[in-house]
Write a structure and sequence with these properties.
This is Dead-box atp-dependent rna helicase 47 mitochondrial. It comes from Holotrichia oblita. Keywords: ATP-binding, Helicase, Hydrolase, Nucleotide-binding. With about 375 residues, this protein is of the alpha/beta class. The chain has three domains: about 30 residues; about 200 residues, 3-Layer(aba) Sandwich (Rossmann fold), CATH 3.40.50; about 100 residues, Rossmann fold, CATH 3.40.50. It is about 45% helix and about 10% strand. Strands 3-4-2-5-6-1-7 form a seven-stranded parallel beta sheet, with helices on both faces. Strands 9-10-8-11 form a four-stranded parallel beta sheet, with helices on both faces. The radius of gyration is 24 Å and the shape is globular.
């Protein structure tokens, strides 16, 4: 047998092995619920001209994988469980089909989006408004705790088709009969795992029980703990699970460094890095509210302009802290993960992970503040 024949057989065997390897990888990905597919362009998705134009104005032409998969399915009326990492375009994935299904001539409530924090509610509603740029007959408003409820009641009385809100305040409006659920046909639970972690389970169940049985329920969650599975079984009808395989969780433009330290040396190390780098604005993340308060006290005692933001603060206090931070009168913001959801501040120089987060999704949310 010649050397060329042997090489040919070797290459053929290798090629077959590679084909089998990728075939097996595809089967395993499918078993895990991952959908491997090419992305679509928005003008290929049977969307209204107004939405395509609004998306183009936002600078997007091609949908992300979660958008490519979820938009079409949701438009077909299918209940969806969506799993994808942060920054993948989840809001548009449920926002576009939500808007497309709204009856513009009907001023009554038709869609509810529930999310864990006030900041995220505002962020989602802002994206909805961008998508609604050429659909002037559809109104969306955020409702959340910390804002005077009378102002929200006046806005609701004017006629609103889409409400983006936190569970506690939505439940409050239902009990006051300023929000009526009988015309709702579309509901989204965004960051469902976060809402359950924050103790909103009973509120969510109360809200869903008040809605018509004939509705579409869409759920997005970074993780799928047993509590989420139970929720989907109770309130969704034959949901389709869409999970996007993870690629790179973080963007290359963010430089990342880590230091191996003993617990007792963390504060000293943090102080020295701040002194050496002299950041104008920085965020320090801790895992607990108690840790945040302790660290702020320690930093202030060392002469740093630091303030805390976490769930125990009243909304007005959180707003005041964020106002000072944006203005630069506070140099260091010390925060918990939940309190930082939806925070968007320009020109943050450094994000410190004083405590390692429990979940990689939290890490991505943290460093995405830069």
């Amino acid at each position: 047998m010649s050397r060329y024949t042997e090489n040919g057989k070797y290459l053929a065997c290798n090629f077959i092995y590679i084909l089998l390897y990728y075939a097996l990888a595809l089967i395993r990905a499918k078993e895990r619920g991952f959908k491997l597919m090419t992305t679509l362009k928005f003008d290929e998705m049977n969307l209204s001209e107004e939405i395509v134009k609004a998306v183009a104005d936002m600078g997007f032409e091609e949908a992300t994988p979660i958008q490519s998969m979820a938009i079409t399915k949701i438009m077909e009326g299918i209940d969806i469980i969506g799993q994808s990492q942060t920054g993948t375009g989840k809001t548009a994935a449920f926002g576009i089909p939500c808007i497309e299904q709204i009856d513009e001539d009907n001023r009554r409530l038709q869609a509810i989006i529930l999310c864990p924090t006030r900041e995220l509610a505002i962020q989602i509603c802002e994206e909805f408004r961008q998508l609604l740029k050429y659909k002037s007959n559809i109104r969306a408003i955020p409702i959340y705790g910390g804002q005077p409820i009378d102002r929200q009641i006046i806005a609701l009385k004017k006629g609103v088709q889409i409400v983006v809100g936190t569970p506690g305040r939505v439940m409050d409006h239902i009990q006051r009969k300023t929000l009526r659920m009988e015309t709702v046909k579309f509901v989204v639970l965004d960051e469902a795992d976060e809402m359950l972690d924050m103790g909103f389970r009973e509120d969510i169940e109360f809200i869903l029980e008040k809605m018509p049985e004939e509705r579409q329920t869409v759920l997005f969650s970074a993780t799928m703990p047993q509590a989420i599975v139970k929720l989907t079984r109770l309130y969704q009808k034959n949901p389709e699970h869409i999970a996007i395989a993870r690629k790179e969780l973080t963007v290359p433009g963010i430089e990342q460094f880590y230091f191996e330290l003993k617990e007792k040396t963390k504060l000293e190390a943090l102080s020295r890095i701040i002194d050496m780098q002299c950041p104008k604005l920085s965020i320090v993340f801790c895992n607990t509210k108690k840790r945040v308060d302790e660290l702020v006290e320690q930093l202030q005692s060392r002469g740093y302009f630091a303030e805390a933001i976490h769930g125990d603060l009243k909304q007005q206090q959180r707003d005041n802290v964020m106002k000072k931070f944006r203005a630069g009168t506070i140099e260091i913001l010390v925060a918990t993960d939940v309190a930082a959801r939806g925070i968007d501040v320009d020109d943050i120089d450094i994000v410190f992970n004083f405590d390692l987060p429990q979940d990689e999704e939290y890490y991505v949310h943290r460093i995405g503040r830069t």
